[in-house]
UniProtKB/TrEMBL annotation, chain A:
Belongs to the ABC transporter superfamily. One of its GO terms (molecular function) is ATP binding. Residues 5-261 form the ABC transporter domain. It is a peripheral membrane protein. It comes from the Bacteria. The lineage of its organism: Bacteria, Bacillati, Actinomycetota, Actinomycetes, Propionibacteriales. GO terms for cellular component: plasma membrane. SMART domains: AAA. CDD domains: ABC_NikE_OppD_transporters (cd03257). This is ABC transporter ATP-binding protein. It comes from Kribbella sindirgiensis. Transmembrane segments: none annotated. Its main location: membrane. It is found in: Cell membrane.
Automatic annotation (TrEMBL), chain B:
Coiled coil: none annotated. It comes from Kribbella sindirgiensis. This is ABC transporter permease. Belongs to the binding-protein-dependent transport system permease family. InterPro entries: BPD_transp_1_N, MetI-like, MetI-like_sf.
Length: 331, 332
């Protein structure tokens, strides 16, 4: 069966005055149908830019310079390359097939239009329904995401909602056209921990009900462990490892993922164990290390190899990993 | 909402009472009064006015009474009879003196306002959407020139152009043959043919400023996440820009729209003087110079009233436009 969405060698660069920042530089990942893929990585690794590139939402000075983004609407039909699609076709895909929830629920809804107005607008844009039917859909969706008294709240403005309620409203809006894929870009980062757990539960419930795939962008391995079926790990603008969540999080292959997993604080860990951070710092944006991009920080660095050869993706157990440690085994 | 308006009305009356009193005090502050001007004028002509005649003048105008009595007499007339008093210099009632000119001032001001809005908003929006494009640089360049060139200078240049290339009579709002004629179609057309020069002169600085403001406001909004949301929803680009960021960027405009009201009457004094337009600005200037106190006082009172009303209208317009403010009113 085809995955729902395949991203192949996506490159999105920021063309700035003093050089080019290759924020996304060769990202390849796939989103399975009806499942949840978590994309994890440190700040600045290109997670959000990848998410925005999928719907071609990046703005100047960022520019998508290469790659393919293939949407397989049916499991065996012709794929649609979103990067090559005409603007009009792309606008049809937006929200109807792929919807998005952003990081800041405060800022991602217009404060001078009612919640209902913003949902109804999306519904009527993609479906040939009347105002009243669209309004009923909005009320139904608001009720479904757990907003009390939706008949009344549909006419509220976003600033009359709390942060968690706003994110619920945003999710209601995102699901109002029944998309096949929901991209959630750090949807819980701006919320407190209790609300965060509620929102994640809600997303999982809705996924079961509507059967959509979710691509969850997060820097929080805990969040990924809680909801993801698959995990893709990004470092410096590329995916270094993708595989089933249980495998990647409990037996990571890539030294970077291993270091990330070690750096998560655990309840019940012995007091004298110090928290291990990933060694070194992220290299400056204008200079990418040669060879494997992680080599200057890697514990398993092999001189004369890792700093020369660019690793290709290989499969080890169920995991796709880009690391020379595993390339060896294969050849 | 009604309670809010009622409360504002009460404060408006108190504010106006305070303003009228302070105005009167300020008019009285310089040494001398209107008779000083009369004496100075007479001396300039080589005449001498006897003291008895001056005392007579003072009694006639009520200038011999204590300050507070003068004020109360005047304000009583204004409140009870709508009588703004007499202009000493023109020997006419203030109402009839101002009335003629206020109409022309308003025609000029409203016409320039429409000119400013119809030019500045589209250019400002274009400038923001195409930031750093050739068109944006051109608009910015012309905008800065428009703001930098003093109005009187522009007035002189435009008058020269109007006279040299369009054969129009210099200055004024009417050709000589229509100046004192009764209103008819010919006079109206004549007014329109003269009006464009002052409209452009008065409007240029405002247009330039408004272009910059619109551009800056819109640039602030263009990259906010809610715009990305609208785009992700699949809205066509122009539609989403007009519905979301452009709408947001107009809020500051609504909060200043009330300031335009007093400008309708008093604005553009310098241009009017240079181009000898029969509007109210030059009249006010003359009245201040000759200490024609009831005329000045009435002017200031009218302007303050318009300012206070304008501010309130502006608040109401903003409440209508921006739900964040509206809902706050509804609660309290």
């Amino acid at each position: 069966m085809q995955p729902l969405l395949e991203v192949r060698s996506l490159r999105t660069h920021f063309e700035l005055g003093d050089g080019v920042v290759k924020a996304v530089d060769g990202v390849s990942l796939s989103v399975p149908r009806g499942r949840t893929l978590a994309v994890v990585g440190e700040s600045g690794c290109g997670k959000s830019v990848t998410a925005r590139s999928i719907l071609r939402l990046v703005e100047k000075p960022a520019r998508i310079v290469g790659g393919e983004i293939l949407l397989h609407p049916d499991s065996d039909g012709e794929p649609l390359d979103l990067l090559a699609a005409k603007d009009k076709r792309l606008r049809q895909v937006r929200w109807a097939d792929i919807a998005m929830v952003f990081q800041e629920p405060m800022a991602s809804l217009s404060l001078v239009h009612t919640i209902g107005d913003q949902i109804i607008e999306a519904v009527r844009l993609h479906e040939n329904v009347g105002k009243q039917a669209a309004r009923e859909r909005a009320i139904e969706m608001l009720g479904r995401v757990g907003i009390p008294d939706p008949q009344r709240r549909v006419d509220s403005y976003p600033f009359q909602f709390s942060g968690g309620m706003r994110q619920r409203a945003m999710i209601a809006m995102a699901l109002s056209c029944r998309p096949r894929l929901l991209i959630a870009d750090e949807p819980t980062t701006a919320l407190d921990v209790t609300t965060q757990a509620q929102i994640l539960d809600l997303l999982q419930d809705l996924q079961q009900e509507f059967g959509m795939a979710i691509m969850l962008i997060t820097h929080d391995l805990g969040v990924a462990a809680q909801v993801a079926d698959e995990v893709a790990v990004m470092y410096l603008g590329e995916v270094v490892e993708q595989g089933p969540a249980s495998a990647v999080l409990s037996h990571p292959k890539h030294p970077y993922t291993q270091a990330l997993v070690r750096s998560v604080p655990r309840l019940g860990a012995r007091g004298q164990d110090r928290l291990v951070a990933v060694r070194g710092t992220v290299p400056p944006p204008y200079e990418r290390p040669t060879g494997c991009r992680f080599h200057p920080r890697c514990d398993a660095f092999m001189a004369g190899k890792c700093d020369v050869t660019v690793p290709t993706r290989v499969r080890s157990d169920e995991i796709d990993v880009a690391c020379l440690l595993y390339g060896e085994e294969k050849s | 909402m009604l309670r809010f308006v009622a409360r504002r009305l009460v404060w408006m009356v108190i504010t106006l009472a305070a303003i009228s009193f302070v105005t009167f005090v300020v008019i009285k502050l310089p040494p001398g009064d209107y008779t000083t001007t009369v004496i100075a004028n007479a001396e300039a002509r080589g005449q001498d006015i006897p003291d008895s005649q001056i005392a007579e003048l003072k009694r006639h105008y009520g200038l011999d009474k204590p300050f507070i009595v003068q004020y109360l007499t005047w304000i009583k007339g204004v409140v009870l009879h709508g009588d703004l008093g007499q202009s000493f210099a023109w020997n006419q009632s203030v109402a009839s003196l101002i009335g003629n000119r206020v109409l022309l001032s308003m025609v000029l001001s409203i016409a320039s306002l429409l000119f400013v809005w119809s030019i500045a908003f589209p250019i400002g929006i274009y400038s923001a959407l195409r930031q750093y494009s050739g068109g944006d640089y051109l608009a910015s360049f012309l905008g800065f020139i428009g703001m930098a060139v003093p109005e009187f200078m522009l007035a002189l240049v435009m008058m020269y152009i109007g006279f040299r290339y369009f054969g129009q009579s210099v200055g004024g709002l009417f050709s000589p043959e229509y100046a004192d004629a009764a209103w008819n179609l010919g006079k109206l057309l004549d007014l329109i043919s003269h009006l464009w020069i002052p409209i452009v002169v008065v409007g240029v600085a405002g247009t330039a400023g408004l272009i910059r403001i619109t551009r800056a406001n819109l640039l602030d909004e263009l990259h906010k996440p809610y715009v990305a949301t609208a785009r992700a929803k699949g809205l066509p680009e122009w539609k989403l820009l007009l519905k979301y960021p452009v709408r947001m960027s107009l809020s500051p405009f609504f909060s200043t729209v009330g300031w335009l009201l007093p400008g309708l009457i008093s604005g553009e004094t310098i241009v009017s003087v240079v181009m000898s337009l029969p509007t109210s600005g030059p009249l006010l200037l003359g009245a201040v110079k000759s200490q024609d106190m009831y005329l000045v006082g009435s002017f200031v009172l009218i302007l303050s009233t318009l300012t206070v009303i304008g501010t309130m209208l502006s608040d109401l317009a903003l409440a209508w436009w921006d739900p964040r403010i509206r809902t706050r009113f509804q609660k309290g």
